[in-house]
Design brief:
- The chain is α/β, with parallel strands linked by helices.
- It has a single domain, classed as 3-Layer(aba) Sandwich (Rossmann fold).
- It is built from 8 helices and 7 strands; from the N terminus they run ααββαββαβααβααβ.
- A 7-stranded mixed β-sheet has the order 3-2-1-4-5-7-6, with helices on both faces.
- It is globular.
- It starts with 15 loop residues before the first helix and ends with a strand.
Length: about 260
């Protein structure tokens, strides 16, 4: 994969407002909550997060290695939180010794890679025997739509397909969790469809600068944060009640076979 070539979000990586709003999104908050609940507390051991981007799943800690292809994203992440280790690396060519980590996180990464299986093999290689991988991914091929194309997904996965990919890489699936349901998919499709409207509205407001404009931006950011936190509740409930076959995002915990 070419480093950040043609990345439509690269220009926003240094924008604090963009980062703040991105990290307030209801789907990110729910995904992060699910991942953190699966993490095991192992004092002194390093945790690898593959493809952390601007929005890592882990708590801020000096025990985390953030691996990300975009240098700009890691620069912003390091400036914002400081603690941890920051490594620019392609997920298909991880620069770590075999058997280095007892825990690895890979959340919403594989679907962005032209070739996903080499990344799984690299992740498995970096894990200790018996080490665990926490993986989240977009579920159901039939859900692939404009919102997937907008964020540059190459694919969505069926559960059986992902389990086979993990098995081929030497990883055994031991737990499957529903993270997001059909309501999240409907919401994102609607949001992407409305983006042209938001763009026209923003262009019409560009003349509102200065103190009044800054106050308005802070108010909008606060409303955005509150609305996303409130909306996360029905989305979480929807994921719990929906059958797994309709889930839009799944979490798998897998162990590396000895």
């Amino acid at each position: 994969m070419n480093p950040s070539c043609g990345n439509r979000f690269e220009d926003f990586f240094a924008d604090n407002a963009y980062v703040l709003l991105k990290n307030c999104l209801y789907n990110y908050l729910l995904r992060r909550r699910a991942v953190r609940k699966c993490l095991q507390s192992k004092m002194g051991e390093l945790i690898l997060e593959v493809g952390s981007g601007l929005s890592p799943m882990t708590e801020v800690s000096e025990r985390i290695i953030y691996s990300e292809l975009s240098f700009a994203a890691l620069q912003t992440l390091k400036r914002r939180q400081g603690l941890g280790y920051f490594v620019v690396a392609d997920a298909t060519h991880l620069p770590f010794k075999t058997g280095s980590f007892s825990q690895v996180i890979c959340s919403e990464v594989l679907e962005h890679l032209p070739e996903d299986r080499p990344a799984l093999r690299e992740i498995a290689s970096a894990m200790k025997p018996g080490g665990s991988l926490i993986l989240t991914f977009p579920h159901r091929r039939s859900y692939f739509a404009g919102d997937d194309r907008f964020v540059k997904h190459f694919r969505r996965y069926e559960l059986a397909e992902m389990k086979k990919n993990l098995d081929d890489a030497g990883l055994e699936t031991v737990e499957i969790q529903k993270v997001l349901g059909p309501l999240e998919k409907i919401t994102m499709m609607t949001f992407i469809a409305l983006i042209p409207f938001f763009e026209r509205f923003r262009k019409g407001k560009r003349d509102c600068e200065g103190k009044e404009g800054a106050m308005s931006s802070r108010f909008v950011s606060l409303c955005f944060l509150c609305l996303n936190r409130l909306y996360s509740a029905p989305v979480w409930l929807d994921a719990r009640l929906a059958p797994r076959c309709l889930t839009s995002v799944l979490l798998i915990r897998a162990f590396r076979r000895n």
